[in-house]
Amino acid sequence: MTEILPITENSLKRAKTLILKGETVAFPTETVYGLGANAYNTVAVNKIFEVKGRPNDNPLIVHVHKDFDISALVAEVPDYAKILAKKFLPGPLTMVYKSKGTVSPAVSCGLDTLAVRIPSHEGAQKFLKYLDLPIAAPSANISKHISPTSAEHVLADLDGKIDLILDGGVCTGGIESTVLDCTGEIPVVLRSGLISKEMVQETVGACGEYVYREGGVARSPGMRYKHYAPTCRTEMFEPDEYKNALALYDAELEKGVKVCILCDGDGKELIGDRKFIFLGSTPKEMAANLYAKLREGEKTSELLIVISPKERGGVMAGVMNRLTKACGKRYES
Ligand code: TXA
Ligand code: MG
Fold first, then answer.
1. If you take atom 6 of ligand 1, which residue's CA is the nearest one?
2. Looking at the DSSP assignment, which residues form a beta bridge with residue 179?
3. How many CB atoms lie within 10 A of CB 137?
4. pLDDT digits (tens, 9 = 90+) for 52-63
5. How many whole angstroms from 244 Cα to the centroid of ligand 2?
6. Ligand 1 lined by 325 (C-beta under 6 Å)
7. Which run of H or E residues covers position 198?
8. What pTM does this model have?
9. How far apart are CA 95 and CA 190, in angstroms?
10. Is 60 within 8 Å of 124 (Cβ atoms)?
11. Which stretches of the chain drop beneath a pLDDT of 70?
12. Ligand 1 mean position to 267 CA, how many Å?
């Protein structure tokens, strides 16, 4: 049985008992819910991979509280990383450093680097502080399914597979943290998120972006996989393909397929009385709503037609990355 408890002294005590026993515990962050385990304990870390059905070559992020001394975990922190950490942490930015090798090698799947994140969510900070341990945690969903932004989402995926979900309400960020490689001369975005490439560039003058090409060596191994995918069929259309999208909707409906359109505000009048789910107006709103809306979409339809928003830069880079991956497409820009 999986328990959902609000974050209190009692539930934290329970979480600590479980973590020290080598079990996993789900906890909230400002981006998505995480499935945490003691990063020093290989058996515990392996349990994360088992519970999620995660491929064992996709490394995990270590989460620590804001006063944790990360020099216990990583070997080199370049000056630009210090500046970025000062500006954006605690917050939705994960930084990859050369590892000291003090946590279990299972965390980074044998890589010599370690991804470190200091979440800003009050509940996450309480949990991490209470344990005072580095907590390895991926998103608390079944591997390749949509990431969870509420305790209910975690339960829907992991009911019976874990003992405890700490409930910290709905995640306000909505998409996973930006992953930034801080092992080179300049920082490089490995996964886009709410801290945009532009924001990093403005702060330290330069920022690269890594684009994975099929068949190549992935610097962020998670990029290889189809992700964030609804269990129903999805089709994605560009904003100027509205007519084709609506034609598909009508044709499928005619066949008796339950169809639904996921869209932003533009073109709403074209939809008429067809069934739709509204993603949001601003990039931040869309990021915050994205996973809950995808979950709503897979529940209510057999075919989810996604109209991609027009905008592409800043936070939208992160939203577009998730949307295209959810639709099984490779993300190229
Ligand atoms: O917002 C988030 O980051 C959430 C919450 C729970 O903190 N966590 C999360 O974890 O999204 P996960 O496991 O779903 O995604 C981790 C990503 C993967 O793309 C993985 O390949 C990359 O980070 N990663 C982890 N360690 C890495 C490393 N040493 N080098 C390069 N990429 C790494
Ligand atoms: Mg994930």
1. 34
2. 94, 191
3. 28
4. 999 989 999 999
5. 32
6. no
7. helix 197-204
8. 0.94
9. 10
10. no
11. 212-226, 329-333
12. 35
Domain segments of the chain: what residues?
3-209, 233-326
DSSP 224: G
Contact 171, 28 (CB under 8 A): yes
Q: Residues 260, 289, 187, 91: what is their CA dihedral angle, to the nearest 10 degrees?
A: -160
In the sheet with 259-263, reading across from the earlier edge strand, the strands are 233-237, 303-307, 259-263, 276-278
- What confidence tens digit (pLDDT) does each residue in 199-234 have? 999 999 999 999 766 555 566 655 555 677 899 999
- CA-to-CA separations, 125 to 42, 84, 202, 321, 323, in angstroms, rounded: 23, 19, 28, 28, 29
- The CATH number of 233-326 is which of 2.160.10.10, 3.30.590.20, 3.40.50.11030, 3.40.50.720? 3.40.50.11030
**3-state secondary structure at position 288:** helix
Residue closest by Cα to atom 32 of ligand 1: 220
Pairing mode of beta strands 164-167, 3-6: parallel
Output the CA–CA distances (angstroms, integers) from residue 212 to 131, 178, 216, 219, 222, in the order listed.
36, 16, 7, 8, 10
CATH architecture assigned to 3-209: Alpha-Beta Complex (3.90)
Q: What is the pLDDT of residue 332?
A: 41
At 89-131, the pLDDT tens digits run 999 999 999 999 999 999 999 999 999 999 999 999 999 999 9
The answer to whether 73 and 134 are in contact (CB under 8 A) is: yes
Q: Is the CB of 218 under 6 A from ligand 1?
A: no
Nearest to 115 by CA among 130, 99, 132: 99
Cα separation of 162 and 168, whole Å? 17
For ligand 1, say whether the CB of 58 is within 6 Å of any of its atoms: yes
For residue 228, what are its two tokens?
Answer: 């964030």
